[in-house]
Structure formats: structure tokens, C-alpha cells
Write a structure and sequence with these properties.
two-stranded antiparallel sheet, alpha+beta, 3 helices, elongated
């Protein structure tokens, strides 16, 4: 058994406010990635940004710096 710990503030797991907060925090980065043609996968506390290219097109995909621009805009 874990020890009982008193918390000054908390949100019950599964309540509506965290879900709404999550949506508001992920909506803008998702829109930015979509506008720049960057694919995004999100799961729990992990976000992956990537661009699709053929094996011969990797140099062009990296040099276009879509990912870097996306990260810069999301950071702002």
C-alpha cells in the first residue's frame, strides 16, 4: 500500500477538464504541421513529426527543412 499524501490541488483522472486542456494544447501544433505538409503522430506524452519521401528523395526532404520550420513555429 502506498502512503496517503495530501495534495494542495489536483484533477481527478478521467475528468473532463484535462481532456479539454489536451485538445486545446494539441490543436494548434496539429494545424501548423498540416499547413506545412508535415505528418504528425501523437500518443500520450510522445509526438513524432515526419515527412514522407522516397529513398532517393531523402536529401531533398531534409534540405527543404519542413521539419525545422514546423518545430520553430510550434515552439513560438
Amino acid at each position: 500500500m502506498s502512503d496517503v499524501v495530501q495534495l494542495a490541488c489536483s484533477v481527478p483522472q478521467g475528468s473532463v477538464p484535462p481532456a479539454l486542456s489536451c485538445i486545446s494544447l494539441t490543436a494548434e501544433p496539429t494545424d501548423i504541421a498540416e499547413d506545412l505538409g508535415v505528418n504528425m503522430h501523437m500518443y500520450a506524452d510522445d509526438t513524432q513529426l515526419y515527412v514522407h519521401c522516397s529513398p532517393k528523395g531523402t536529401t531533398a526532404a531534409v534540405s527543404q527543412s519542413q521539419l525545422e520550420l514546423c518545430l520553430t513555429r510550434v515552439d513560438k
